[in-house]
Write a structure and sequence with these properties.
Blueprint: H1 2-7, H2 12-43, H3 53-85, H4 89-92, H5 95-104, H6 106-124, H7 131-146, H8 160-185, H9 189-222, H10 231-257, H11 267-293, H12 307-312, H13 322-327, H14 333-355, H15 362-379, H16 382-387, H17 391-411, H18 414-421, H19 432-441, H20 444-449, H21 452-467, H22 471-477, H23 479-501, H24 512-534, H25 544-547, H26 556-607, H27 612-630
Helix pairs in contact: 2-3, 2-7, 2-8, 2-11, 3-6, 5-6, 6-7, 8-9, 8-11, 8-14, 9-10, 10-11, 14-15, 14-18, 15-17, 17-23, 17-26, 21-23, 21-24, 22-23, 24-26
Bound molecules: protoporphyrin IX containing FE.
């Protein structure tokens, strides 16, 4: 496709420049929105969950940044469309053309979605009064910002999963880093003291993510020698140099702020540094916008181009065998990034506990690592690779992501670890990160989610919605669809097994009998679904696997039936394991309860006071006497 792009009519340097400028203003304004919301929800202290006076004042900065985001975002849609059509702006401004772009073309749909998000934030931000609302808008803003990246020209590279995933991580980390620096810059000096210590950790993690993701993305573009003689490569090199400069300024900041304990921070120097830092960041944002709106270099015409790479985003692997499935690897940068961050946060939590002199069962850490490794294998590893090319492997990967990995993650008690290690309020009035998590866990929304019926409906109901509607074929065709599907499998599995065998706190504990009934229901529904698959006479993927022109196991329907049988077998095993675990927990809880009652009885006997049972019998006798009296 890139090769084709070279032969498409160009809309000329003027429209090209406008596209880059509007992209630059869009991303800068959106990052400013994130920066202000980050300051309000995470850097400035709240008052028992309510926004402080400083935060309330900052809402207008978020409002005006959002307005700029809306205007620039709308312009960016028009210029991007003119660029794609290779036409004048007037053509792109035609209502029918514009409407079909934002309703029928995936990139247009995602850009329009981002515009709606920007409008929503502009409409709501002035009215938020609680910390929770600011966090909600922050998450919505981040989703809006990364949506179009799923369809950026990274989608046309030979390794979709690496190119798109790394760019999404790049943009997310940029939002936190650049946005956070902007947030700090607009804070009142007296609020900076508390904010900088919290931001410096966040900044460090974000810088690491920006560099690794930037280099990974650059690699997918520049992994052939000719590419290094292009303006694209020069811009990337310029960005690397600017990043090194920014890292040096970060180091200067740390040196200056390390005098915080001695109250000797040179705030004038801090302001100077932050002004220089923001100016360099603006330049880097502009260069990044240029990169993302100009065609990256394409390998020489000689290189072979196959249907598999176009449809699935990676070359077709050889016929599956044990070694190939075990060793195949296609880095899904987004999942690798999420797993790396989760592992880093988990180990950091365990380290904090150790530093506090507390212990944490090693088995839990091992369970967490095993869970992450299983997810890696079913997304970037061999199972993940073959899942793109055969329904049977897709179903095995689905079962592993939805039923095997979640059990390990659930048994590693991540919520308990978070509750024991997340920072408390920095001031007596502040709710703190830990307080915010507790509030979220006790929220109405979470109590609806962990309702056993809801958990079962999401866990098993989604099978029918995904596979027995055209949804599956569509999801397989796009990288976004693939990512959302895998994420859904993992999250619905985590929710279901948390309700059944979770060791983490659950606002509403489900009685053991209800859990057993739920597991049997899940087994039955899963069996029913698998039988439907095994006896299916039509293909469920709406032509996805056919487009791959797979040479090995060409009979797509029998492969689908195989997927049904494997899904059935693999699905029942974890549910059986959960059933056994539930019975063990039940018996253990019962004996613990029995021991408690016995201990109470012994204690009561020792103190000569009636024990629970005696008290209860006395109560019943009183009731009987009263009834007799009344009768
Ligand atoms: C080691 C340093 C960095 C490297 C190697 C790097 C590399 C890249 C690459 C390869 C892209 C993808 C361009 C495309 O879509 O073809 C990109 C996008 C981008 N980069 Fe960087 N970058 C780095 C640091 C930064 C910094 C420090 C900033 C800003 C402060 C930045 C801002 C951006 C922006 C705004 C985009 C466009 C994102 C989008 O598509 O929405 N980058 N970068």
């Amino acid at each position: 496709m890139i090769l084709l792009a070279a032969s498409l009519p160009s809309s000329g340097p003027f429209v090209n420049a406008l596209t880059t400028i509007s992209k630059f203003v869009t991303i800068t304004a959106s990052i400013a929105v994130v920066g202000v919301l980050l300051a309000i929800s995470f850097l400035i202290e709240d008052e028992h969950g309510k926004l402080s006076a400083q935060s309330l004042r900052l809402r207008s900065a978020a409002f005006w940044s959002a307005i700029l985001w809306v205007v620039a975002g709308a312009a960016n849609i028009v210029f991007t469309l003119a660029n794609i059509l290779g036409s004048q702006i007037s053509v792109a401004l035609d209502f029918t053309t514009l409407r079909s772009f934002v309703t029928q073309v995936t990139l247009g749909q995602y850009m329009f979605f981002q515009l709606i998000i920007a409008l929503l934030i502009a409409g709501l931000v002035q009215n938020i009064k609680r910390n929770g609302a600011a966090i909600f808008l922050l998450i919505v803003a981040l989703i809006g910002i990364v949506a179009p990246v799923f369809e950026s020209h990274s989608a046309s590279s030979g390794s979709h999963a690496l190119a798109i995933g790394s760019l999404i991580i790049h943009v997310m980390a940029l939002c936190i880093w650049v946005g956070g620096v902007f947030g700090l810059a607009i804070l009142d000096p007296e609020a900076r003291g508390l904010a900088v210590s919290r931001f410096s950790q966040l900044a460090l993690w974000s810088v690491i993510a920006v560099v690794i993701s930037g280099v990974a993305n650059a690699w997918t573009r520049l992994n052939f020698s000719e590419a290094w003689h292009t303006s694209y490569a020069f811009i990337v090199i310029a960005k690397v140099l600017l990043t090194l400069l920014l890292i040096y300024i970060g180091y200067q900041h740390r040196k200056n702020l390390s005098a915080r304990e001695t109250m000797n921070v040179n705030w004038a120097k801090f302001s100077q540094l932050i002004t220089v830092e923001l100016s360099i960041m603006i330049i880097a944002l502009a260069l990044g916008s240029w990169l993302s709106t100009n065609q990256p270099p394409a390998p020489a015409l000689g290189s072979k181009f196959d249907a598999a790479t176009t449809v699935a985003g990676l070359p077709m692997p050889g016929a599956p065998n044990f070694t190939r499935v075990l060793l195949a690897f296609n880095p899904d940068a987004l999942f690798l990034g999420i797993l790396a961050l989760s592992l880093a946060l988990y180990f950091r939590g365990v380290a904090i506990l150790k530093r506090q002199g507390d212990t944490w069962p090693v088995s839990r850490t091992v369970f967490f690592v095993v869970g992450c490794v299983i997810i890696e294998f079913a997304t970037s590893g061999g199972l993940g690779v073959y899942a793109y090319f055969a329904f049977s492997y897709h179903m095995v990967a689905h079962m592993v992501l939805g039923m095997v990995a979640p059990i390990f993650i659930i048994l590693s008690a991540p919520i308990t670890l978070a509750l024991r290690t997340l920072p408390q309020g920095r001031t007596p009035d502040e709710r703190g990160v830990r307080g915010t998590l507790i509030t979220a866990l006790h929220s109405r929304l979470v109590s609806i989610w962990v309702n056993p019926i809801v958990a079962l409906a999401i866990f098993d109901g989604s099978l029918f919605i995904l596979y027995l509607t055209p949804l599956f074929g569509g999801m397989m065709l796009s990288h976004t669809g693939h990512f959302v599907m895998d994420l859904h499998f993992i999250l619905s599995g985590l929710l279901f097994f948390h309700v059944i065998i979770g060791v983490d706190p659950n606002p509403k504990r489900v009685p053991y009998l209800a859990r057993v009934v739920l597991l049997f229901a899940a087994m039955a529904i899963h069996a029913f679904f698998s039988v439907a698959l095994i006896s299916s006479t039509t293909l469920l993927d709406h032509g996805y696997f056919a487009q791959l022109h797979r040479l090995w196991s060409p009979d797509l329907l029998s492969d689908q039936h195989l997927g049904g049988s494997l899904g059935w077998a693999m699905g029942e095993v974890p549910i059986m394991l959960a059933l056994v675990a539930t019975f063990i927990l039940w018996v253990r809880d019962d004996s613990r309860e029995a021991r408690r009652i016995d201990r109470n009885a012994e204690r009561a006997a020792a103190m000569g006071t009636p024990d629970d049972l005696a008290q209860y019998n006395a109560y019943l006798a009183k009731l009987a006497a009263r009834d007799e009296r009344d009768s």
